[in-house]
UniProtKB/TrEMBL annotation:
Names of the cofactor(s): Zn(2+)
SUPFAM superfamilies according to UniProt: Metalloproteases ('zincins'), catalytic domain
Molecular function per GO: metal ion binding; metallopeptidase activity
Protein name listed in UniProt: Archaemetzincin-2
InterPro entries attached to this UniProt entry: MetalloPept_cat_dom_sf (IPR024079), Pept_M54_archaemetzincn (IPR012962)
One example of a Gene Ontology biological process annotation: proteolysis
Protein keywords: Hydrolase, Metal-binding, Metalloprotease, Protease, Zinc
Listed Pfam families: Peptidase_M54 (PF07998)
Superkingdom of source: Eukaryota
Amino acid sequence: MCACSNREFSLRKDNQHANVLGDTDKLNDDIRRAVTIGIDECFLSFPKPKPGDWVSLHQEKGQTVQEFERTKRTVPHTTYKTIYIQPIGPFDHPRAPSLETICEFSSNYFPGCELEILPQIEFSDFSKHLKTGKRINKYSKQPQYLAGFIIGHLKKMRRRERKNDRKELFCVGVTMADIYPEASWNFVYGLASIDDGIGIYSFARLDPVFPDIETARPCTDEERTLILRRAVGVFVHEVIHLFGLEHCIYYSCLMNGSESEEEMDRQPLYLCPVCLRKMYSAMGKEKQHFNVIQMYTKMLDGCKRLNLKTELEWYENRLNILNRTADN
């Protein structure tokens, strides 16, 4: 974790949200209604920070839609629409979440793109230099790997093994090993290199019994649902960073920063109006696939299958509001 404090953060006023969202008049009807109708009924304002929360420790100025649209970023185009998921290390532990389930649900956030799981690789496949990035965490007593070294190895794999790949949009490494971003941090859930289109995130601390995963009993249904919910949230959050979106400070949103389990569990599994519009812009010419009603309907079905009750209620309510206003 970071030990610095951020005294500059202040909550955005409600009347500033319209300025952050920008002009919506020229948007197609589907996305325009999704980011302007029933907002107060469905979206909570960004919570007042508590000591130790992400925005209390990190400077977050916010990113408006206009600022996002001016940034240089990777945009899906022609055949470059595949998001690769690279498993690193074993995933056969009975408490490990299913990558297939996570990808199936997460794909709904990226219409027009495809998610593909690559063959598993091992840390022993990495160069010898990775050893300098391995340490034993002084609190958990578990091995940790430096996230930047993992990203560096994934970059080498792209150049060496997939240099002629005409499908790859991004590559996201996933692992059951714990990771950290730099020596002064305790750990990190995930890290994204936007310029490289590569991210890495760890399942390790998503399990409530961490660091005693190896000796723990099989998951209860409640624990498995919690781990899956966290895994989907962290995965989607990191991939959305690769599209160029920064942390959200406008609403309670999937793109809020997270410094703890409490903050992570507080984040909803949906995007606020500002971030939803950014993702619409992020799709470039693939916007034709970005139909919010269809996305929400698929997410609703996914929530039913994964027993995500809170999200199920939210998507049902949101769809009722949007469908009702469409009929009027």
